[in-house]
């Protein structure tokens, strides 16, 4: 957690030659501009301008001046770059020329949601993600093929699992950049891998997902492979999900420690999950994943039940829930913003969840007997629901048209 002054000192003392200023488009794709150390103080004071009309979903050419302001607390050395003449990265907030926040900056949108949760509910949401990806071989021209890196399955070991060394490199690199991975293993699909993260505050969790995907893509390329985060890379095999684990902690002096708000958070999320789905599952392939190979499609929750949309894991205090529908292509900043706003509604309106489901919803015959509502069946359906939602408009009105 660096301050501006500490970053300036660090850059001078540690032989830093390039500073990457990173930001995100509306799809959560990371962009960046590199500056020299001589420009850093100016970046902190006046920001670095860029052409917003060249970023998908931002502004047209008639109103295209936006400014990047680096967040010094996000400073990290990029460890795969040279040790002499180091390269560092900071995430940025996007401002208008008059220094007001840019309304389509998803990082700022999430910061506002976190602030609202603290002010109105007296809590901070804590997030841990489980991100899945496939590794595919490249052809002789260096282009991705459809051939997975291995044929291993869930939690297999070498020699069947060919990805253990790459996962090891990824985890070491995460640690070097100040991120703590919790676990890593081979997933169910051939060439499929998963790395899980310790919980953190929501903004840090979203930053970590963005950094993680960058590291995975970089390490895969360095090993002559292609990393695929899409929700359904191979038909009839497991898709790539991004399970989101949600807990909370009280803000000192604002909340009664004895009150368990998790049921209200659960109720609020279930109440709005149809509207949120477009932002949790943002591609056509997302809806091929939902309902197949253990990805949920029914709107239900259960204690310890991995066939439900939301699982409350088995632990002594019942203080965590796991949302299992999001996939790895979602913009984590917008996804977490919507989940936080749904949680706020649940807490303020004391929304309680329906009865827990104990049955196996992967058994279609069993599921149909329960007559449960389903998640949207296509991207088009999900988009229509989102666009007609007052909740979505209130939460992220500047980006709903994307």
Task: Please provide a brief summary of the model.
The chain has 402 residues and is an alpha+beta fold.
Structural notes for this entry:
The protein has helices spanning 4-13, 40-46, 106-121, 164-176, 202-222, 262-280, 286-289, 332-348, 364-370, 379-387, 390-396, and strands at 16-24, 30-35, 48-51, 65-70, 76-77, 86-95, 123-138, 144-148, 181-186, 192-197, 200-201, 225-228, 242-250, 301-303, 310-312, 321-323. The protein starts with a helix and ends in a 6-residue tail after the last helix. The radius of gyration is 21 Å and the shape is globular. It is built from 11 helices and 16 strands. α4 (164-176) crosses α5, α6 packs antiparallel against α8 and α8 packs across α11 (390-396). The chain is α+β, with helices and mostly antiparallel strands and 402 residues long.
